[in-house]
Amino acid sequence: MPEEKNPSVALDRHFSIAQIARQWGVSCDTVRRHFERVPGVLRLGHTENKTKRRYVTVRVPERIVRAQHALLTKAVSS
Q1: Is residue 54 over pLDDT 90?
Q2: Are 58 and 16 in contact (CB under 8 A)?
Q3: Which of 4, 12, 52, 71 would you call most buried, defined as having the most Cβ atoms within 10 angstroms of its Cβ?
Q4: What's the rounded Cα separation, in Å, for the pair 74 and 78?
Q5: Percent of the chain beyond pLDDT 70?
Q6: Across the chain, where does the E strand assignment appear?
Q7: How far apart are CA 51 and CA 61, in angstroms?
Q8: How far are the Cα atoms of 24, 50, 74 from residue 78, in angstroms, in the given order?
Q9: Which residues of 25-34 are buried (b: 16+ CB within 10 A; e: fewer)?
Q10: How far apart are CA 62 and CA 67, in angstroms?
């Protein structure tokens, strides 16, 4: 099993897209787009094929939520 760079992230609380959207007061689509390419976000599921659509469960570790919120807050206040 490969060694993780930061193994304690596995023990962090993880949030769903809906939980973050409620907490931030924005839509799930907005949160999903924001975290789409952020490293460290968990994406569990399978890709779509000709007969089935794609189902992906996204979970965002608390430290990433906090870091992204700080970046967004800093960008707005600058």
Answers
A1: no
A2: yes
A3: 12
A4: 6
A5: 90
A6: 14-16, 42-46, 55-61
A7: 32
A8: 19, 46, 6
A9: eeeeeebeeb
A10: 9
